[in-house]
Amino acid sequence: MGLTTMTDVSKGKVYLVGAGPGDPGLFTLRGKELMEAADDVVYDNLVNDSILNFAPQAEHIFVGKRAGNHSLVQDDINVLLVKLANEGRTVVRLKGGDPTVFGRIGEELTALNDADTPYEIVPGVTAGIAGPAYAGIPVTDRKLSSSVTFITGREAMESVSQERLSTKGTLVIYMGMKTMDEMVTRLIGCGHASNTPVAVVQWATRQEQRTITGVLGSIAERCAEEGIGSPAIIIVGAVVALREQFKWFEE
Length: 251
What we know:
Elements: H1 6-10, E1 13-18, H2 29-37, E2 40-43, H3 49-52, E3 59-62, E4 65-66, E5 69-70, H4 74-86, E6 90-95, H5 105-114, E7 119-122, H6 127-134, E8 148-152, H7 153-157, H8 162-165, E9 170-174, H9 180-189, E10 197-202, E11 210-215, H10 219-226, E12 232-236, H11 243-246
Parallel strand pairs: 1-6, 1-7, 2-3, 2-6, 8-9
Antiparallel strand pairs: 4-5, 9-12, 10-11, 10-12
Helix pairs in contact: 4-5
């Protein structure tokens, strides 16, 4: 082992922690332990306030996006994490769901690596699994679907190949509400029938969770009629039909 310098001793550490999908009961024990020891909690939008309450001693720094506005751009968040750790502080970087699923964690890890800042990744429960589960929809089923594809609404419109979008398994779409009309058109163009079952789960796992089901060809209209908007998870595929048997959250 090499000698430990004074700089190493004084440097803090960043913990990139998944806050889960909303229900504070799904927050991990490791996450709670770190919150209780944190000097700073750098958190995103959609993090449940009940989870922030696990760290009353810490400074809470909001860096999320609300109403189309970023409180800090990603580069500034990267700089902030390094700065706090360099001051010898214990930092919890709290991200909704799982930090490695559509959480831009790679950019933050790169910045921490470049600055030789110690870090740890603490997984969380992602909304793409928890939302369907709370709606009574298993994302895989031995008879109906043996695969799951996670994409974002932007990817569905721009960069995802037709082969991935035409999967016969389950599609779980994050951040897709704003582009739903165009996304439906592309999915049908990729071979999905207009009567493919679809579910939309808003505010997944929270008390205010709402779930509607329909078919691909008319789900956008159904959402408009019911006032369903962001944040929501969209599930496309045959497994959606299982909700009628297994829905439990509303019971």
